[in-house]
Design goal:
The complex is a heterodimer. By secondary structure, chain A is α/β, with parallel strands linked by helices. Chain A is built from ten helices and eleven strands. Chain B is mainly α.
Chain lengths: 307, 90
């Protein structure tokens, strides 16, 4: 009798990452058509992801997407997986900051002050924690533990001592693991689009009021730490352009409610920035899941507490 | 007469978690703080309370298990703090 796995798994076959590792060694002119065919196979074999991709593309493109659009969406993700594997294999994360807010980011990095780095499943953003580690930060990355993520295991090995993982699907200890990491002076890297164990609130995104995790701002207030969001965009040459948000810093002279309201304003501005990028690069939204749930237009208060 | 530590803890809980509609004096010493519909507290509230208690009383609560034990009720919390302070004094 088959037992149900205790942990979720990445879609796709177990041999997928090993296969991608191997095919990377073949010349690019040969690899490209191979990947194109592989992407069609993935589109064919992953009906749930295909359905969510379509639903998202309808929203962002404003038209009914063709199968070729879905293929491009899958292909963009495959390209990112290949980059992730290269980094896991020892290649450096090649980053350059976009000029806007670069000074704020550089000052934060130079200060050594622990911070809360937020990001989303968009473009190269998933590599943020490793890019920070390359610059001498000790980072705890909050992730979903899955059974078949060999690339994450390789990345963990590659960045041992600089990057640690906190598993979001171990909610019993999630918040205390974050607390311990912050108390030992690590920074936290959190992806703030998927709803796991977090307090959520309603924000405007892609034409609707939607539920997003807001835990990062509660942590900022509790531990008196700054919050900064970074988006990783492909530069077209295998590197990454980092788009940095303005910094949010809790004001000790204000009460909790006022600071949380400032946090809401900050996060709404971050989401507006993300939406601009998503509309510029629609295929880089790497959530092959239902879009964040829609809420009534006037939903401003916390809408749920999970965990 | 109410234990002064219990009374202080009740005020701290109400203030930290902004339980505006709860009068500290009305919290029974043995009422569960988490899982009680009266308070409606979640894990972030628990962490917030833990951080505040650590600052206020110089104690350390470093796991979810410990926090469950400590935050079972006001009475349990007072006992936990006394035990930790006792250990620290030795």
């Amino acid at each position: 009798m088959n037992e149900r796995p205790l942990l979720p798994r990445n879609p796709g076959p177990d041999w997928g990452f090993r296969f991608l590792q191997q095919v990377q060694r073949v010349p690019r002119w040969f690899l490209q058509p191979l990947l194109a065919v592989g992407t069609w196979v993935a589109v064919g074999l992953m009906p749930a992801q295909r359905r969510h991709s379509r639903a998202y593309l309808v929203r962002v493109l404003g038209r009914r997407p063709g199968l070729a659009d879905v293929w491009r969406h899958f292909q963009a993700y495959l390209e990112f997986l290949l980059l992730r594997l290269r980094v896991a294999g020892g290649a450096p994360v090649m980053c350059a900051l976009e000029p806007e807010n670069a000074g704020v980011f550089e000052a934060l990095m130079a200060s050594g002050e622990p911070a809360l780095f937020g990001t989303f499943h968009f473009g190269h953003s998933d590599l943020l924690g490793f890019a920070l580690a390359q610059r001498g930060r000790r980072v705890a990355m909050v992730r979903l533990r899955v059974t078949n993520s060999e690339d994450t295991a390789m990345l963990e090995q590659q960045f041992r001592g600089a990057v640690s993982f906190i598993w979001v699907n171990e909610p019993e200890n999630l918040l205390f693991a974050m607390k311990s990491a912050l108390e030992r002076g690590d920074s936290l890297a959190l992806q703030c689009d998927r709803l796991h164990s977090s307090r959520t609130e309603g924000f405007d995104f892609l034409g609707a009021r939607r539920r997003f995790p807001f835990t990062i701002y509660h942590l900022a207030l509790m531990f008196e730490l700054p919050v900064i969001f970074c988006l990783g965009l492909p530069d077209g040459r295998g590197g990454t352009r980092i788009d940095v948000s303005p910094l949010f810093r809790p004001d000790p002279n204000l009460g909790r409610d006022s600071n949380l309201q400032r946090g809401r304003d900050h996060f709404q501005a971050v989401l507006a920035r993300l939406e601009t990028r998503v509309r510029q690069h629609p295929m880089l939204w790497f959530n092959f899941l239902p879009l964040n749930a829609e809420l009534p237009e006037d939903a401003t208060k916390p809408v749920a507490s999970i965990g | 007469m109410s234990d002064p530590l219990n009374a202080r803890l009740k005020t701290l809980i109400v203030e930290t978690l902004k339980l505006d509609d709860v009068n500290p004096a009305d919290i029974p010493d043995d009422e569960p703080l988490f899982g009680s519909p009266r308070f409606g507290l979640d894990s972030i509230d628990a962490l917030e309370l833990v951080v505040k208690l650590e600052k206020e009383f110089g104690i350390k609560i470093s796991s979810s298990e410990e926090s469950k034990q400590a935050l079972a009720s006001v009475g349990a919390l007072a006992g936990f703090i006394r035990a930790r302070q006792e250990v620290a004094r030795k």
